[in-house]
Write a sequence for this structure.
């Protein structure tokens, strides 16, 4: 198939999934065309069967705000016509699904370009609910030929929040478990925890929805009982507040802010446990990557997280903001070697058996084929 993919190319789970999907589809012999304003960050080197098309945004004194959605629609039309695309798969509804609808309508007399929209999270649970977006999001979803969500939770939310009657298919996030895997020799651990301390880790974009301060509060309780370190990977609006909280709680250099990092596998597989206390999380790709590296996960009970984290098997789930319980669960695992080993193995096994790319990507292919035939 000839497949166009549009996503947000910078840091963020939806862009990661879109890019990894495109790479895997290309490996499987499909021709993939990425259409976005920048090269997706996980597409930094040449991959056979993949072409990137940059959307240029024109500026004009009259346009106070850049008209990206329109430039994107035009680029979609151009690529679909020139490359003879069979379908366009857009990730994150706003504005991608709307631009895709426009492109489809513009091409209608020449070709029936099928549109697939994958809903990822805040496009449905937060931003899409704003009155200025809601009718457009509903319309664009309903006009897509195929719609997927990354969890059953998000499917329910889409149906109830937008009164959608269209069929929605759940296709979860996935991970390459040959890449994200426990690594045996890790110098990183020695640098971070030279005295053999336990290492807790959290990766995110430090948005309020991630509740990163809760991670620090959990750690504060844990390190009183067990010598440990906390690694925070990523950057975003809440980072300064988190740095302040670390100083206020007198945690010194027990908490390491690493900022954005490329070598995630090394960091994850050098760590012992992953914390994700989010306020809202439609799936939790970061937790899945950690599980693939053999890390048990302590999470909040929101959104799609209970579909990923098996309570008392691959980790523990607690109510949002219940820092005491999260700390208790963390201590329970870190102080019981036998239990820890079992949970670590369960995590890796669940990632491999349920969420490896080889299990999930074919679900997209089947869906494309079904819609293209209809
Ligand atoms: O919805 C967002 O906040 C943006 C999106 C992203 O681009 O990072 O994140 C969502 O998509 C990921 C990939 O499907 C999911 O794993 C994340 O759980 C989800 N984030 C939220 O729901 C907050």
């Amino acid at each position: 198939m000839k497949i166009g993919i549009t996503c947000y190319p910078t840091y963020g789970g939806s862009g990661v999934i879109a890019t990894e999907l495109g790479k895997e589809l290309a490996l499987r012999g499909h021709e993939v065309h990425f259409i976005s304003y920048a090269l997706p960050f996980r597409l930094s080197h040449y991959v056979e069967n993949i072409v990137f098309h940059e959307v240029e945004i024109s500026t004009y004194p009259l346009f106070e705000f850049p008209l990206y959605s329109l430039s994107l629609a035009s680029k979609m039309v151009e690529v679909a016509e020139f490359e003879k695309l069979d379908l366009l798969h857009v990730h994150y509804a706003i504005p991608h699904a709307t631009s895709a609808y426009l492109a489809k309508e513009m091409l209608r007399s020449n070709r029936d370009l099928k549109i697939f929209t994958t809903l990822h999270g805040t496009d449905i649970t937060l931003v899409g609910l704003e009155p200025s977006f809601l009718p457009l999001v509903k319309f664009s979803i309903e006009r897509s030929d195929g719609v997927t969500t990354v969890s059953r939770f998000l499917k329910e939310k889409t149906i109830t929040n937008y009164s959608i009657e269209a069929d929605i298919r759940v296709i979860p996030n996935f991970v390459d478990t040959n890449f994200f895997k426990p690594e045996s020799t890790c110098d990183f651990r020695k640098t971070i925890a030279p005295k053999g301390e336990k290492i807790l880790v959290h990766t995110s974009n430090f948005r309020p929805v991630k509740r990163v301060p809760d991670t620090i509060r959990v750690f504060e309780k844990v390190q009183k009982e067990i010598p440990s370190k906390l690694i925070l990977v990523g950057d975003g609006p809440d980072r300064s507040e988190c740095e302040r909280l670390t100083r206020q709680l007198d945690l010194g250099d027990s908490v390491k802010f690493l900022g954005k990092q490329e070598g995630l596998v090394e960091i994850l597989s050098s760590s012992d446990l992953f914390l994700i206390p989010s306020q809202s999380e439609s799936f939790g790709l970061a937790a899945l990557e950690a599980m693939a590296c053999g890390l048990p996960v302590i999470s909040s009970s929101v959104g799609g997280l209970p579909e990923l984290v098996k309570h008392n098997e691959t980790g523990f789930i607690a109510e949002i903001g219940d820092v005491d319980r999260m700390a208790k669960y963390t201590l329970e695992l870190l102080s019981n070697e036998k239990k820890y080993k079992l949970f670590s193995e369960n995590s890796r096994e669940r990632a491999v058996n349920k969420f490896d790319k080889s299990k999930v990507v074919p679900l997209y292919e089947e869906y494309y084929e079904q819609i293209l035939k209809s």
Q: What stands out?
A: The mean pLDDT is 96. The pocket of GMT is lined by residues 8, 12-15, 17, 120-123, 150, 173, 209, 280-285 (CB under 6 Å). The first helix runs from residue 13 to 27.
